[in-house]
Specification:
The protein is an alpha/beta fold. The protein contains 11 helices and 16 strands. Strands 3, 4, 5, 8, 15 and 16 form a 6-stranded mixed β-sheet that branches. This is Oxidoreductase, Zn-dependent and NAD(P)-binding.
């Protein structure tokens, strides 16, 4: 087993703290990665605080991982020691179901998430990227473009693919008017990607102070969603709306903005349900309300390559891992511009070694 150090939430209410655990020895098809950077997704916070009611403690969050390969198994062909590598939200799937066969592993009924998922290899739960190393099946390791800033690439592994996939699924492109709701980690990627796909992009935000950033990232217009009169001006206008909001809110306010046959796709996953919606807003214009979950491995690689080609990365604030609890509070206040990324160099291995209980006062 491989000694590993990280940060874990010990309970739903306690702050994240230093945690020592073990990774499996790499098997023939595994890649052993030293983690350099890990993005901080709102899903990490939902999970650390058991907001989705499925957390097994202790939980080591983190599914926006960029690192360097230190060791590969004998059957690994696509990676070798020294390569850059990325890991996103999944680390395994059955490989044979119709979803896997289509490259849509995220819909495989038995997929394994990067953290808080039963781990078929160890019989325990998976532990994520707020840690110094990870061992992952080569089928779930991504090639990271060398030309982009590595820390700013990390959030592409979740925020990037979660927005890229629905924008592609609904064929967003030139001639389309696309709304993005919320300028957080996911939203600021959606604005950049929809702009790169050639759509007219309108950002809906509750934070007037984000207007200039939104325009710089590629929004053609910015609407302050708290203002009903301003919202009403945009009725029946949108081909597609991508809703990234992490809290329950009034969906009708956005459904009314769709054209006939327009679609609003929800990717935000709040703790509590949204208020009930008005069905006539769907019926009268044959509008659709949809959802989307991250993206498959093939599409994630396509997204990374697209971002490399177009120079798209996340706007990040690099933090030491010791600041993770403060970062969660700032994320809740919509203060992150626009993704926290943990610099794993801030996670020193304890001098006393693994056998000795890791004492947080040492770090
Ligand atoms: P985030 O960085 O916190 O961004 C969420 C944004 O939503 C905020 O920046 C804010 O933007 C807006 N917002 C927050 N509270 C709001 C409220 N009460 N009313 C209206 N707007 C509000 O979070 P994230 O990391 O982008 O994640 C967003 C959501 O997507 C989370 O629920 C996360 O779990 C989920 N997620 C889903 C998937 C998937 O596969 N479907 C993948 C990853 C994440 P403004 O300040 O601009 O209003
Ligand atoms: Zn995520």
């Amino acid at each position: 087993m491989i000694k590993t150090f990280g940060y874990a939430a010990p309970t739903a209410t306690a702050p994240l703290d230093a945690f020592a655990f073990e990774r499996r020895e790499p098997g023939p098809g595994d890649v052993h990665i030293e983690i350099l950077y890990c993005g901080v997704c709102h899903s990490d916070l939902h999970t650390a605080r058991n907001e989705w009611k499925n957390t097994v403690y202790p939980v080591v969050p983190g599914h926006e991982i960029v690192g360097r390969v230190v060791q590969v198994g004998s059957e690994v062909t696509a990676f070798q020691a020294g390569d850059l590598a990325g890991v996103g939200c999944m680390v395994d799937a059955c490989g044979v179901c119709p979803d896997c066969q289509e490259g849509l592993e995220q819909y495989c009924p038995t997929f394994t998430l990067t953290y808080n998922s039963p781990d078929p290899h160890t019989g325990q739960m998976t532990y994520g990227g707020y840690s110094n190393r990870i061992v992952v099946d080569q089928r779930f390791v991504l090639r990271v473009p060398k030309t982009l800033d590595l820390a700013a690439v990390a959030p592409l592994l979740c925020a990037g693919i979660t927005t890229y996939s629905p924008l592609r699924q609904w064929k967003v492109g030139p001639g389309h008017t696309v709304g993005v709701v919320g300028l957080g980690g996911l939203g600021h990627m959606a604005v950049q990607l929809a702009h790169a796909f050639g759509a007219r992009v309108v950002l809906f935000t509750t934070s007037p102070g984000k207007t200039a950033d939104a325009r710089r990232l590629g929004a053609d217009e910015v609407v302050i969603s708290k203002n009903p009169e301003e919202m009403a001006l945009h009725a029946n206008r949108f081909d597609f709306i991508l809703n990234t909001v992490a809290a329950p809110h009034n969906l009708d306010a956005y459904l009314q903005l769709l054209k006939r046959d327009g679609t609003m796709c929800l990717v935000g996953a709040p703790q509590e349900p949204h208020p009930p919606l008005e069905v006539f807003n769907l019926i009268f214009k044959r509008r659709r309300l949809a959802g989307s979950l991250i993206g498959g491995i093939r599409e994630t690689q396509e997204m990374l390559d697209f971002c490399a080609e177009h120079g798209i990365v996340s706007e990040i604030e690099l933090i030491p891992i010791q600041n993770i609890n403060e970062a969660y509070e700032r994320m809740l206040r919509s203060e992150v511009k626009y993704r926290f990324v943990i610099d794993m160099a801030s996670l020193p291995e304890p001098a006393t070694g693994f056998e000795v209980q890791w004492n947080r006062k040492d770090i």
